[in-house]
Design brief:
Layout: H1 14-29, E1 38-40, E2 49-51, H2 52-68, E3 73-76, E4 80-82, E5 88-96, H3 98-102, E6 109-116, E7 119-127, E8 132-136, E9 141-145, E10 148-151, E11 164-167, H4 175-187, E12 190-193, H5 197-204, E13 210-216, H6 218-221, H7 225-230, E14 234-237, E15 247-252, H8 255-265
Parallel strand pairs: 3-5, 11-12, 11-13
Antiparallel strand pairs: 1-2, 3-4, 5-6, 6-7, 7-8, 8-9, 9-10, 13-15, 14-15
Helix pairs in contact: 1-2
Length: 267
């Protein structure tokens, strides 16, 4: 009698993250550039769009996690949290940059992070339309595209006066936060807007030097922390606390640049 082949147990690793991203990408791409409708989940006076692509991608990710790791916690932007307090918690933003998605711009991405204990242990940002997957574990980071794996390394030699700064929008900042952000921009070489999660991955890839934002949720940033740190960058809150829970975030290609930006953000 022929023995049945042994099926390896799933592991919390890059391969599993990539499988989650593939499932999410199939859902998202079915709705991209086809005029998908959007609901406003923010209520009167505000706008926070959500689409069938967001919901379908998150459902696909959650289904695979539940099958592989039924005791793990999950926090997702669209369907909330389960099993709070678990040792391992997956944090999901199925489409970070839904506005870009609705505009047909490939500047959105699927974010999947794993927090183990109190540490952002694994992270992925996938852009399925152009076929890029960014992965990190806090010690190393890589870009996978077209069967090629490229190690990521942030720029280590840029002072703020030479730096390219990015943020999703200048309208994120109000009052003292706006003044603090303006100080950083005035001291930098250039500023660009509108890339959402992609800006952080470009920082890890050595194309962007500094990302400054505010009002982020854990699902906006937790997956990006291991990528940035794995590439040699630094990411914290404006107060210097760990970034994985969100809030006011500053990410830099090097410790020296991070220190320069923090001094200006603190006034």
């Amino acid at each position: 009698m022929t023995a049945s082949p042994t099926v390896p147990a799933p592991s919390r690793d890059f391969a599993f993250l990539a499988a989650l991203a593939e499932a999410a990408g199939a859902e998202a791409l079915a709705h991209f550039r086809v005029g998908v409708a959007a609901d406003n989940k923010a209520g009167p006076g505000a706008y926070d769009p959500v689409t069938a692509a967001d919901r379908g991608a998150e459902a696909a990710i959650r289904r695979l996690i539940e099958e592989a790791f039924p005791a793990d916690g999950i926090i997702g932007e669209e369907f909330g949290a389960v099993r709070g307090g678990a040792e391992h918690t997956w944090i999901i933003d199925p489409i970070d940059g839904t506005r870009a998605f609705l505009a047909g711009l490939p500047l959105w991405g699927t974010l999947i992070g794993l927090v183990t204990g109190d540490r952002a242990a694994l992270g992925l940002m996938a852009q399925p339309y152009i076929g890029e997957v960014f992965l990190g574990d806090g010690r190393s980071a890589e870009l996978r595209r077209g069967g090629t794996i490229t190690p990521l390394r942030s720029r280590q030699d840029r002072a703020l006066g030479e730096a390219l700064v990015m943020s999703t929008s200048p309208h994120l900042f109000q009052g003292e936060e706006a003044a603090a952000f303006a100080r950083v921009v005035a001291a930098s070489r250039d500023v660009r807007y509108g890339a959402d999660c992609y800006a952080y991955c470009m920082l890890a890839a050595g194309q962007v030097d500094l990302v400054v934002e505010t009002g982020l949720k854990t699902y906006d940033i937790a997956a990006l922390v291991p990528i940035i740190e794995g590439a040699g960058g630094v990411v914290t809150t404006w107060d210097g606390a760990p970034a994985k829970d969100g809030g006011r975030i500053v990410a830099a290609g090097s410790r020296a640049l991070h220190d320069e930006a923090m001094a200006l953000l603190r006034g």
